[in-house]
Design a protein that fits this description.
By secondary structure, the chain is α/β, with parallel strands linked by helices. Helices cover 39% and strands 18% of the residues. It is built from 16 helices and 22 strands. A seven-stranded mixed beta sheet has the order 15-17-18-14-13-19-20, sandwiched between helices. It is globular and about 65 Å long. 54% of the residues are buried. Bound molecules: NADPH dihydro-nicotinamide-adenine-dinucleotide phosphate.
């Protein structure tokens, strides 16, 4: 274990509670030594492979296929055949049955998926168990409900599927992002080729087993694993739609590549969300919201509340309560049911976080990390808060995608708004106040796709999610998300 260097703290850490280890049994997950590509309902032997690891201890978990452009082309061809040979013309009520089955199997196998997600991605088991997996199942249930009601969802229009959807997802919510992408695509009558992130392919590969159990017709969903080259090959293939979630940089490259082509595109990119606390807010509740906003999933969340704006009159109080609360966060083994903050997803991501944190210290912000012990092996970063942050600092401008919060202050609602909107991103925001009128005033003016009021990081399949400007375009969830997988005659 490594002790996190003690940082100057105005508030002593609270007397710690000792928790006995509460490890989740990992033997519910049976890993294969090697995984191929799931194409046309079959496992294809890979030509090239790489090793996927557990970021918590760098233990190798399995050999994964690195799909070549030819293999991606085979997957797209299989999806095309499945689209034309029946899936697109299947009655909606039949498609719904498959989606319901998938949802139910995900629920039945939820513990297995939760353990696998934490093993491969580093997130605490209580998050994968209570958030990722149930929400993934909920997305399939929700979209099963729409599959035979598309004409009611879009009255006076004749909704038709697009064809083959190429879907590229990131590593922060591997199974949940898969559900966000696959459920609406299938409900609308499309077929799919999905590429999971290089570092977190395992839950998508286990999902292939769910597809077989649900007896989904071959080729309706195809999974191709690999790094960014596989993603680029998918973008370059004859698909009808690309749905991408990931970095703004790659999103822009995809948009450039598809310019002028008849391919529908949705991009869900990064964010630098403002979480705004007014002096009349319930401060203890707000502190819980701050913690949930930035330390949930180690801050690997596109809508993380990474810029905290606190009204000056309560700033000292809020920061002191926050530091106390941070002292109670348990950092460590993702498979321990008591863990609050797990492992950073990969070595490059850890380097990125370290580099941005160093820039914050160099630029003059005050850092605080609660004393905690980090495991020696694996990728770890202590929950961190910066105070005395200027808006121009990189930590207030750039997406860190780690457990690092920047605190800024404001005096009036107008100042809060101006500072909150001072970002090239526009994905999400939070407002904490007792006054309903102020919530509405802020929500109308905040330039963000989602605004949470007196809560943070709440998701529901019926609620559209997506951003503006550098955060991308298009919505996922709700009828808006469904529309992105349809054309209208
Ligand atoms: P990327 O944008 O590189 O990864 C997202 C997905 O795109 C992955 O499946 C990736 O594959 C794939 N990909 C990579 N390059 C290409 C390409 N040229 N064409 C098509 N697909 C491609 O994000 P990173 O994993 O590199 O993370 C970098 C930063 O991005 C993070 O630090 C964070 O700031 C931000 N990010 C934002 C996310 C969000 O939800 N908005 C999610 C993830 C990251 P592979 O995994 O093999 O690289």
């Amino acid at each position: 274990m490594t002790d996190v260097e003690k940082r100057p703290a105005s508030v002593p850490a609270p007397a710690g509670w000792d928790y006995a280890p509460a490890p989740e049994a990992r033997d519910i997950v049976q890993l294969r030594e090697r995984y191929g590509l799931f194409v046309g309902g079959q496992w294809l032997e890979p030509k090239e492979t790489y090793t996927t690891i557990s970021p918590a201890n760098e233990e190798p978990l399995a050999e994964i296929a690195q799909a070549t452009p030819e293999e991606v082309a085979d997957a797209v061809a299989a999806a095309r055949v499945a689209f034309e040979d029946g899936w697109s013309s299947l009655p909606g009520s039949e498609r719904a049955k498959y989606l319901f089955r998938i949802a139910r199997i995900l629920q039945e196998r939820s513990r297995e998926f939760a353990v696998l997600e934490s093993l491969n991605g580093g997130k605490p088991i209580k998050e994968s168990r209570d958030v990722d997996v149930p929400l993934a199942a909920a997305h399939f249930f929700y979209h099963a409900g729409w599959a035979d009601k598309l004409e009611y969802a879009f009255p006076n229009r004749r909704p038709k599927p697009l064809g083959v959807a190429g879907q590229i997802i990131p590593w922060n919510f591997p199974l949940l992002m898969l559900a966000w992408k696959i459920a609406p695509a299938l409900a609308a009558g499309n077929t799919v080729v999905l590429k999971p992130a290089e570092t977190t392919p395992l839950s998508a590969l286990l999902f292939c087993d769910v597809l077989r159990q649900a007896e989904l017709p071959p080729g309706v969903v195809n999974i191709v694993t690999g790094d960014g080259r596989t993603g680029a090959a998918l973008v370059d293939s004859p698909v009808d739609k690309i749905a991408f979630t990931g970095s703004t940089e790659v999103g822009k490259a995809i948009q450039r590549h598809l310019a002028g082509k008849q391919v529908k595109l949705t991009l869900e990119l990064g964010g630098k969300a403002a979480n705004v606390i007014f002096d009349d807010a319930a401060l203890d509740q707000a502190v819980e919201g701050i913690v949930n906003g930035i330390y949930f999933n180690q801050g690997h969340v596109c809508c993380a509340g990474s810029r905290l704006f606190v009204q000056e009159s309560v700033a000292e109080d809020v920061v002191s309560k926050l530091k106390r609360r941070m002292g109670t966060l348990r950092v460590g083994d993702p498979l321990d049911k008591n863990t609050d903050v797990g492992a950073i997803n990969s070595a490059p991501q850890l380097e990125k976080i370290k580099e941005l944190v160093a820039s914050g210290e160099e630029e003059g912000a005050q850092i605080y990390q609660p004393p905690c012990r980090l495991p020696e092996r694996g990728y770890w970063f202590a929950p961190t808060v910066f105070t005395e942050v200027a808006q121009s600092y990189r930590i207030a401008q750039e997406e860190i995608f780690g457990p690092v919060l920047s605190v800024l202050t404001f005096r009036t609602p107008e100042e809060a708004l101006e500072k909150a909107n001072n970002t090239p991103y526009g994905l999400s925001a939070g407002v904490w106040t007792e006054k309903g009128s102020r919530i509405l005033w802020m929500a109308e003016r905040l330039r963000a796709g989602v605004v949470w009021a007196n809560t943070y990081n709440r998701f529901d399949p019926a609620s559209p999610f997506g951003g503006y400007r550098e955060s991308g375009f298009g919505r996922e969830g709700g009828r808006h998300g469904l529309e992105a997988y349809m054309r209208f005659e």
